[in-house]
Amino acid sequence: MSGRLNKAQPYALSLFRIVVGLLFACHGAAALFGVLGGAAGGGGTIPAGTWPGWYAAVIELVGGTLVLLGLGTRTAALIASGSMAYAYFTVHQPKALFPLQNSGEGSALYCWAFLLLVFTGPGALALDRVFAPRGESRPADEERKEQTTAVAP
Q1: How many Cα neighbours within 13 Å face the side chain of 30?
Q2: CA distances from 85 to 17, 35, 105, 137 (A)
Q3: Which of the chain's ends, N or C, has fewer CB atoms near its CB within 10 Å?
Q4: How would you classify residue 45: left for phi > 0, otherwise alpha for psi between -120 and 50, otherwise beta?
Q5: What does each of the 153 residues of the chain score in pLDDT, given as a tens digit?
Q6: What is the 3-state secondary structure (H, E, C) of 46-69?
């Protein structure tokens, strides 16, 4: 069973990345365009250029879309993670110590989910893999090499 799960890992990671990126992009679209309930669920939008809300919404939309597509995943995830850490410590943490008390669960979870993607990469199904320069080693290729050499006598 462990072998099957290990083989599916790059695809499960891709699915995780796609879902997290889509949800994050939806937050940005809601705040910028008033769709999906709008900013803070009130149906409105955030005025252009207002700090920090409008900039956070742009990072959410652009970063979430890039992560969703698996394009520049590690860089986009790093910026998105930092954005959520900033949101947590400036908006939520001053209200109370723990995320459950300060309504910061979303920010904390997005921060750590994106940080995970910085270290794991995009998984098997990503545009990063399509646009990788020739000769550059890809994580899945390295994993296949390790598996074949481990099996060889």
Answers
A1: 15
A2: 18, 25, 11, 31
A3: C
A4: beta
A5: 888 899 999 999 999 999 999 999 999 999 898 888 877 777 788 888 888 889 999 999 999 999 999 999 999 999 999 999 999 999 998 999 888 999 899 999 999 999 999 999 999 999 988 887 766 555 555 555 555 455 554
A6: CCCCCCCHHHHHHHHHHHHHHHHH
Q: Name residue, tokens 């209200």.
A: 95
Distance CA 70, CA 122 (A): 6
- Which amino acid is located at 125 in the chain? L
Q: How many CB atoms lie within 10 A of CB 69?
A: 18
d(CA 77, CA 67): 7
- Is-contact 122 138, C-beta < 8 A? no
* Model confidence pTM above 0.85: no
Nearest to 109 by CA among 135, 87, 139: 87
Cβ neighbours around 56 below 10 Å, total: 21
Q: Which of 32, 95, 96 is nearest to 63 (CA)?
A: 32
| CB neighbour class for 4 (10 Å; exposed up to 12, middle 13-18, buried from 19) | exposed
